[in-house]
């Protein structure tokens, strides 16, 4: 049985006037301040981050023992985390891995990322469409970065606190996060924070590398709450 010519004409007309499929919305921006760092004595890598964003610890921090650490934020491209770590594991420096992931991203102007490699080499990138204030600062074994911040003083305070604080990497990362928070942090407000530290066999029973993986997903004052949780571990 052949289809009715009139029916085909009606179907074609409906297709012609049907609305186009909507463009998928851009991911919600992860306006954030973070630090990636390396402790050469303890052979630990870590990330600390805070934001006016629900469960920022599920998006921004990535780290692998013996390899490095990555923070991906702004309109976060979460593939930067595993891909950046893979590139570093293949022998690229933090700067080389960062360039590779951003060069391949047509939306890199919206991205912000920081990386630290296995030797403590550090690099950061801020796309020119990230919301101001946005920028970063790298030093020996660390990089700080942030967007939609109260000002450049947030990053400066984080860097200073990390450089001047003594003790385990987790303490130094926490000190940097607290300093950034006290300097104004995310200018929209506060919601979540996270701390990730990895070292070889650092996890429960030595079966993975996650020595510390603490998150405050939704809290009126997440950075002090994260510090309180870390202090419980220290007391033990």
Low-confidence stretches: 10-25
The major pleated sheet works out as: 6 strands, antiparallel
Number of strands: 10
What is the radius of gyration computed over CA atoms, rounded to a whole number of angstroms? 21 Å
The shape, in one word, is globular
Read across the widest sheet, the strand sequence of neighbours is 7-8-1-2-9-10
- Please write the string of helix (H) and strand (E) elements: HEEEEHHEEEEHHEEH
What's the rounded overall pLDDT mean? 91
Q: What distance separates the N and C termini?
A: 80 Å
Strand content: 25-35%
Structural class: alpha+beta
Number of helices: 6
- What's the helical proportion of residues? 25-40%
Annotation keywords:
alpha+beta, six-stranded antiparallel sheet, four-stranded antiparallel sheet, 26% strand, globular
Description:
The chain is an alpha+beta fold and 236 residues long. It contains six helices and ten strands. A six-stranded antiparallel β-sheet has the order 7-8-1-2-9-10, with helices on one face. Strands 3-4-5-6 form a four-stranded antiparallel β-sheet, with helices on one face. Strand 7 and strand 8 form a beta hairpin. Helix 4 packs antiparallel against helix 5. The radius of gyration is 21 Å and the shape is globular. About 7% of the residues have low confidence.
Question: What's the SSE blueprint?
Answer:
Elements: H1 5-17, E1 32-39, E2 44-51, E3 61-64, E4 68-74, H2 80-89, H3 94-103, E5 111-116, E6 122-126, E7 135-139, E8 142-146, H4 153-164, H5 169-182, E9 192-198, E10 210-216, H6 222-235
Antiparallel strand pairs: 1-2, 1-8, 2-9, 3-4, 4-5, 5-6, 7-8, 9-10
Helix pairs in contact: 2-3, 4-5, 5-6
